[in-house]
Write a sequence for this structure.
């Protein structure tokens, strides 16, 4: 493991605190820089060894198809946006492709896939510990309201400053670790899993709870370890012991966010009708939205300017039927790769991927930078493992 890999893990832990706003709506994170350096180093070493034609990756072709559809969606809408807006929108496509490059690095690099997964799991545990410290000593984001963040009173949000995305990151980390616990039953692993589980409950994120329950059911069905369903009872006890502090956002049956998501789905359908074949342009949602929808009453630029909460709907609206179909084709190949290995590690990865899919129905999780990094490391490590057999 070289210094760039260590830097990547540290950068992921920094979360939003490792980002710099280049322009309104464009934020570059430290892990972006690290991943770019990793790609450049990988390409330099590959070209120097004259092995550029031997680069492996079963997802390269499906990704080319989807990226091409995303580019076409931008080109077909070139008359509807300014050059600056198109440039800013295309930057997110480049970031998406850059993160995909991490998958290529994992598949072709010399580092063991086990080390990749174990390191990411430890990042998740550290993220959980930071989150618990934040929950105790910094339980609200009230001081960040003027920067476009919600208050999130007495919810764990760690360095992401968002309990929903923090919750999913923790859920994925839990399933990374669940394979080790099931194999070794080590006391240390149980303690770390307990820390992660408590952190998930402290997010009060219903979408993360749904993702966690669905993924655990999949893991139990795959492994036939039905006793692991007891984790749900343990999690329920933990949640029952957490004080609500009389805050509405800490109630499971709160209705405000539910209504907001229903409104988001309604907007998705309306936006999809505008350009159903190739969409309104990849990542052009926030420019397509009206000024009234992008700004709140205080004139603060929202961090959810596009207004859509589902990753699948974002892909469908911005790239149309063509892009959405090719995205599903990419997802199909991801699932196919993971299913190539029939062991407990693969089942844990499958469960983690299920949690991301479920969470993406309620949040733009699948396109969230830190989740994308986890996805490509997960898939890359599994594919590398299959190639070694």
């Amino acid at each position: 493991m070289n210094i760039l890999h260590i830097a990547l893990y540290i950068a992921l832990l920094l979360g939003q605190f490792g980002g710099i706003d280049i322009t309104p709506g464009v934020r570059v994170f430290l892990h972006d820089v690290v991943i770019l350096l990793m790609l450049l180093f990988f390409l330099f070493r590959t070209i120097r060894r004259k092995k550029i034609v031997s680069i492996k990756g079963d997802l390269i072709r499906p990704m080319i198809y989807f990226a091409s559809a995303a580019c076409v969606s931008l080109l077909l809408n070139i008359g509807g946006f300014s050059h600056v807006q198109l440039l800013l929108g295309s930057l997110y496509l480049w970031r998406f492709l850059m993160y995909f490059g991490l998958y290529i690095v994992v598949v072709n690099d010399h580092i063991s896939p086990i080390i990749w997964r174990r390191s990411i799991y430890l990042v998740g545990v550290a993220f959980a510990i930071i989150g618990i410290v934040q929950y105790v000593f910094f339980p609200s984001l009230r001081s960040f309201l003027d920067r476009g963040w919600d208050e999130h009173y007495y919810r764990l949000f760690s360095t992401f400053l968002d309990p929903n995305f923090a919750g999913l990151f923790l859920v994925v980390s839990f399933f990374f670790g669940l394979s080790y616990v099931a194999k070794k039953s080590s006391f240390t692993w149980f303690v770390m899993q307990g820390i992660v589980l408590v952190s998930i409950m402290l997010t009060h994120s219903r979408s993360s709870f749904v993702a966690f329950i669905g993924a655990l059911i999949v893991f139990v069905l795959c492994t036939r370890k039905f006793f692991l369903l007891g984790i749900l009872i343990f999690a329920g006890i933990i949640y029952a012991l957490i004080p609500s502090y009389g805050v509405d956002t800490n109630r499971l049956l709160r209705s405000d966010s539910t209504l907001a998501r229903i409104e988001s789905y309604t907007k998705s359908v309306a936006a999809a009708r505008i350009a159903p074949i190739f969409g309104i342009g990849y990542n052009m949602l926030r420019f397509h939205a009206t000024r009234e929808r992008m700004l709140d009453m205080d004139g603060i630029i929202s961090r959810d300017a596009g207004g859509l909460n589902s990753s699948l709907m974002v892909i469908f609206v911005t790239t149309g039927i063509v892009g959405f179909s090719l995205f599903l084709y990419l997802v199909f190949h991801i699932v196919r790769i993971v299913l190539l290995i029939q062991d407990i590690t693969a089942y844990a990865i499958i469960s983690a991927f299920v949690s991301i899919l479920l969470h993406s129905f309620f949040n733009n999780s699948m396109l969230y930078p830190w989740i994308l990094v986890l996805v490509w490391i997960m898939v890359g490590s599994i594919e590398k493992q299959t190639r070694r057999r």
Summary: Residues 3-388 form one domain. Residues 294-302 have pLDDT under 50 and may be disordered. Residues 17 and 260 are 27 Å apart (CA to CA).
